[in-house]
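Bit of a strange request maybe. I'm writing a small parser for structure token strings and I need a real example to test against, not something I typed by hand. Could someone generate the tokens for this chain?
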Amino acid sequence: QVQLVESGGGLVQAGGSLRLSCAASGRTFSIYAMGWFRQAPGKEREFVAGIRWSGGSLYYADSVKGRFTISRDNAKNTVYLQMNSLKPEDTAVYYCAAARFFAPGVDLRSVGPNRYDYWGQGTQVTVSA
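Reply from user aminoacidic:
Good idea to test on real output. This should exercise your parser:
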């Protein structure tokens, strides 16, 4: 089992920044990829950013590309999401997720949330206009 704990959410004005953290514990050696998703009220959970645990390509939803940056610190078993130039439409509960395996070369933007094996509890991000 893998446990994920998010932190770093909060209330920020439009144009501001936040950094989310996702600390993984347990059988972290089994993690193949991690992703950040978000879910706004009345909407489906959507992909935000993804990264393979071993490194390599980074993946972003078009709506956040150029504003958000995903990174990892393997020594700390932690994945980060730096969010800059925040907009009111970024308001949502943000979740990190971990997957044990995807086919090599898969584009993480095409992987739906049901393909991930472990989830954090979520952290609220609210951006005021």
